[in-house]
Design a protein that fits this description.
- The protein is built from 13 helices and 20 strands.
- By secondary structure, the protein is an alpha/beta fold.
- α3 crosses α4, α3 runs parallel beside α5 and α5 crosses α6.
- The longest helix is centred in the middle third of the chain and has 17 residues.
- The structure holds guanosine-5'-diphosphate.
- The site of guanosine-5'-diphosphate has 21 residues, from α1 and β3.
Length: 433
């Protein structure tokens, strides 16, 4: 069964661990959006791996990993990641392919992003400043440079023309002429030498793999609430992190996605600016941050922390058509005397149970909480649902009820085997193959 795994909250839900855990049951893992702003942290036997562009399946020998057209690729970041993986003994050899239609992040995209953020002042989005947004802007503006364009080696062809125009636009924007288009072209020629063997028609590859009955996992980055269309616009990422993005970002029909798994933490976090209704600014927020080690995998920035927001997860269930949840980091809540779960919002004097479309309205919302008892016995490392303390079971059951989605997987630690896979759930199908 082909499966899409994506973030059901504001990103950093622990998708990397879940994808890594599921990978042995799949033949292909394909990333469909985002760039190297994503940071998936995976622990295997105590060793930490941080992946930015490569699908998390890369850590498993024999699994093909694809970077789809919906991803924006900084070739130097990709090469650095491949070099790093090689030094720590992860053999890539022929297992990574990149779409010829993926857009490139070029050196000046980063500069442009820093400028744009500075110009926004107080209203800044809190981006990772890796050039992701400007690369997507160029894509939509129909002036981007795609991976396949690098095959054009002519000195006056379309590649040189596009780079010349883009560098001229950059120079006008930045207000200097330090960047020479010739240098950008020269860099791209070097990039092509290394990139060329990895380039393929990812859509065709997937079409054939699916026809042969090979199981494919579609891997999302960031999360639903950061989706360019369905998230808390404008405090969002520049791509479709939701399930629809898997179809457009890889060139497969929507029916190729046979199930959708939403990954959600047992609480809520967010990096960067924008509304976060359940945010805890005091001691409890600090407690979640420290226990959960809530610091960005890509930037090291402290994450904003709060209680589980069932309104947001219910919304994620709707816009992604979630079949199941993987609830991560349950162990982080160990030892708390009681827990709050946000079941609705109070907005302008009325109670709402659906996510407001207007971000300013969301920012003005107050969470409506339900209090549940905490547990004293640690859940860390527990692998059977039946072994969880009664209060932890009750907590999971309640999250399922108000989110409207079953928790097929519950994660109780960062290691692969710190995981509960519920026998009576859809997840049993993913592990059977
Ligand atoms: P991703 O981008 O969604 O993959 O998330 P990140 O990698 O940014 O953040 C997830 C972090 O939580 C990583 O450091 C994981 O090792 C860690 N993690 C994942 N699941 C669990 C869990 O169940 N318990 C604990 N304590 N840590 C977890």
């Amino acid at each position: 069964m082909n499966l899409c795994v994506l973030g059901a909250q504001w990103g950093d839900e622990g998708k990397g661990k879940i994808v890594d855990l599921l990978t042995p049951n799949f033949s292909v893992v394909a990333r469909y959006q985002g760039g190297h702003n994503a940071g998936h942290t995976v622990y295997v036997n105590g060793q930490k791996f941080v992946l930015h562009l490569c699908p998390s399946g890369i850590l498993h020998a024999g699994v093909m990993c694809l970077i789809g057209n919906g991803v924006v690729v900084d070739p130097h970041a990709l090469f650095a990641e491949l070099d790093h993986l090689a030094t720590i003994g992860v053999a890539i050899g022929g297992r990574l392919l990149v779409s010829d239609k993926a857009h490139l992040i070029l050196s000046y995209h980063r500069e442009i992003e820093l400028l744009a953020e500075a110009r926004r002042g107080e209203r800044k989005i809190g981006t990772t400043s890796r050039g992701i947004g400007p690369a997507y802007e160029d894509k939509i503006g129909r002036r981007g440079v795609r991976v396949g364009d690098l095959a054009d080696q002519s000195s006056d062809g379309p590649l040189v023309g596009a780079v010349r125009e883009n560098v001229a636009a950059r120079n006008r924007l930045v207000g200097n002429t330090e960047l020479k288009w010739q240098d950008v072209v020269a860099d791209l020629r070097t990039v092509w030498t290394r990139l060329q063997p990895l380039v393929t028609d990812v859509s065709l590859y997937l079409h054939r793999a699916i026809a042969e009955g090979r199981a494919v996992m579609f891997e999302g980055a960031q999360g639903t609430m950061l989706d360019i269309d369905h998230g808390t616009y404008p405090f969002v990422t520049s791509s479709n992190a939701t399930a629809g993005g898997a179809a457009t970002g890889l060139g497969v029909g929507p029916r190729a996605i046979e199930a959708v798994l939403g990954v959600a933490k047992a609480y809520t976090t967010r990096v960067g600016a924008g509304p976060l209704p359940t945010e805890l600014l005091g001691e409890m927020g600090e407690r979640l941050r420290e226990t959960g080690q809530e610091y960005g995998a890509s930037t090291g920035r402290p994450r904003r922390c709060g209680w589980f927001d069932a309104v947001a997860v219910r919304y994620a269930a709707r816009v992604n058509g979630l079949d199941a949840l993987a609830i991560t980091k349950l162990d982080v809540l160990d030892g708390l005397p009681e827990l709050q779960v946000c079941t609705a919002y109070r907005c302008n004097g009325s109670t709402v149970t659906e996510m407001p479309g207007d971000t300013a309205q969301l920012a003005a919302c107050e969470p409506v909480y339900e209090t549940l008892p905490g547990w004293t016995k640690p859940t860390k490392g527990i692998t059977k649902f039946g072994d969880l303390p009664a209060e932890a079971k009750r907590y999971i059951h309640r999250l399922e009820e108000i989110s409207g989605v079953k928790a097929a997987i519950v994660s109780t630690g960062s290691e692969r085997d710190h995981t509960i896979v519920r026998d009576d759930s859809i997840a049993a199908k993913w592990f059977k193959r």
